[in-house]
Amino acid sequence: MTTTQPIHITFLNGADVEKLALTDDEILVAVEDALRAQGNRQTVIEPRVHLVPEDSAKGHFNVLRGVVKPLGLAGVKVVGDFVHNFERGLPSEMAVLNLFDPETGMPKAILDATAITDMRTGAITALGAKHLARKGSKVLGHVGARGTAYWNVRLLDRLFGFDEIRVHSRRPESRDAFAARLSADLGKKVVATSDWESCVAGADIVVEASRLPAPQPMLKTSWIKKGALVIPYGTMSAVELSLTDIMDKIVVDDWGQCRKGLPFGALRQHVDSDKLTEETLHAELGQIVAGLKPGRERESETNLFWHRGLSLSDIALGHALLEKAKRQGLGQNLRFI
After folding, report:
1. Residue-wise pLDDT tens digits, 217-245
2. Where do the coiled-coil regions begin and end (predicted)?
């Protein structure tokens, strides 16, 4: 192949992403803009695919693909999810995001997407709550302390300013360290609980981000108070089949990644048994953000938001980082051709 001039791509490593330090508001705005584009059908989303090297209980790779037309970017992210990495001193999730020109296929950038994965997951959780939780929600119950959990709590608190935050995870050292970090960063008390019930019972917003090796109904429907919002997104389901029976609205990030025939997900059994179908689904979150469907309409609504993870959010944050890197002169310019 010959070209008239060299072509370069931008590389942002983990240190670059850390230095760029996207603010809470920068993260939320970028991801909400991508959701709006999705709602307005200005995106392409391919359902994620999985690569399982040996045993899904040990870990697997997720491959997410999409196009955000208003940004002029296509993206493919590969993220490993390996639950026992803490034993090796490694993050459980590590990722690489590749960005391309959707008109020509030319590579544009490569980014360390480990932090992007955490930030965009937290942003989707928080934006789901923005549109589906009671405005006066003051108690958060959060199960799970993996990488994405920190940004769930941080960005939710940014929007709601909780009076009470409870967190739980299986390992005491993990939940205690998680609570301590959040307390220091948020400037308020965060309580680490020893069991699921004391964490989530009666909370206004319940987030389930557990790391179960196999589906197990740990989160009981009876613990959810009327008017609450529940956000389950563990890879393996941790909820009872009856959970959807008490919901007024069920919203997902992308039905294409939730439909029958796909593995994993918090409501997988509900979809496969037809308790949740495209007809009973209230909306995709992007439709609500774009103003095409209503979010919460009554204080008494009990709602559920299930997200699988959007490539669009990764692309949006990748774009935000690249623009900020240009302004600050960060990143490496690598010759591609």
Report:
1. 999 999 999 999 999 988 888 999 999 99
2. none
- The strand order across the sheet containing 93-100 reads 43-51, 59-68, 73-82, 93-100, 107-112, 8-12, 332-335
Q: How far is residue 150 CA from its own chain's centroid? A: 11
- Is residue 111 within 8 A of residue 17, CB to CB? The reply is yes
Taking alpha carbons only, the member of 139, 140, 75, 84 closest to residue 319 is: 75
**CATH fold label, 8-116+312-335:** ornithine cyclodeaminase, domain 1 (3.30.1780)
CATH architecture under which domain 124-308 falls:
3-Layer(aba) Sandwich (3.40)
Give CA separation, 308 vs 44, 63, 259, 266, 274, in Å.
Answer: 16, 12, 11, 9, 18
Condensed to tens digits (0 to 9), the pLDDT of residues 80-131 reads 988 888 889 998 889 999 999 999 999 999 999 999 999 999 999 999 999 9
Query: What pTM did the predictor assign?
Result: 0.92
Chain Cα centroid distance, residue 280 = 23
